[in-house]
Amino acid sequence: MKKLHYELALRNSDGIEVALLWDGVEDRVLLDVRDSRTGECFVCDVDRADALDAFRHPFAYAAQRDRADATLGGCARWKGAEGVSQLS
Fold first, then answer.
1. DSSP code per residue over the chain
2. In angstroms, rounded to a whole number, what is the distance separating the alpha carbons of residues 18 and 38?
């Protein structure tokens, strides 16, 4: 079965890109954070109830990166990749 991730929210500030994604197949929310200056990044599952808080304060959720989602290829660039689309 093909994975499909929808972009719920995206912001970029001072080289830090934060994206909130929804996995439509597994019905879960993912937080994707990347620093374009250092190349560091992480992807982690976020409880649905905490999604907006995670988007606003992503580094408070950095400890969850040990449970990083392998379906996105770790820190593979999801933006513009097959299987990722924006909700209208």
1. ----EEEEEEEEETTEEEEEEEETTTTEEEEEEEETTT--EEEEEE-GGGHHHHHHSGGGGGGGGGG--GGGTTT---TTSTTEEE--
2. 15
**Nearest 5°: phi and psi at 33?**
-125, 130
User: Which range marks the domain in which residue 44 is found?
Assistant: 5-71
Query: Mean pLDDT, 10 residues at a time, over the chain (88 residues)?
Result: 83 96 92 92 92 94 60 48 48
> Is 22 part of any domain?
yes
Residue 53 lies in a domain: yes
Neighbours of 41 (CB within 10 A): 18
Across-strand partners of 16? 13, 35
Between CA 70 and CA 53 the distance in angstroms is 23
